[in-house]
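pasting for ref
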Amino acid sequence: MPMAVAAAQGKAREKGRAIGIGGVFIKSADHRELSRWYWEKLGLRHSPGRGILLQWRADDAPNVRRSTVWSAFPQNSRYFDPSPAPFMINYIVDDLDALLDKLKGWGVKIDPQREDYDYGRFAWIFDPDGNKIELWEPAEQDE
């Protein structure tokens, strides 16, 4: 095995990394109708107050239930600010603090705001194009 591949595989196992997509959020002039279109036309299951939930299990933890949220936001939502993008991606991470420490060391722009809920912890960063990225460390899941 080439040295670079071995190093990359070892690095992938360190804590403080994205392990999946936790959500895809987009702005829409008529967010309710857009959501309804996805429910009706693609058969995606709607969870009131949470958007569309896509359930899955990870290969490395098949006993843990996870979900990816798809949700449309009003066009005038400020949730993505200061990003100019009409979308935001949420990544599930295995250790929020470890990842934020790495990102800080690499000079990544990090929003100082944090939020904690019964379903997990959240932080936000920005990519080089200024797109806001949401990081989510889920709370312990039922098996």
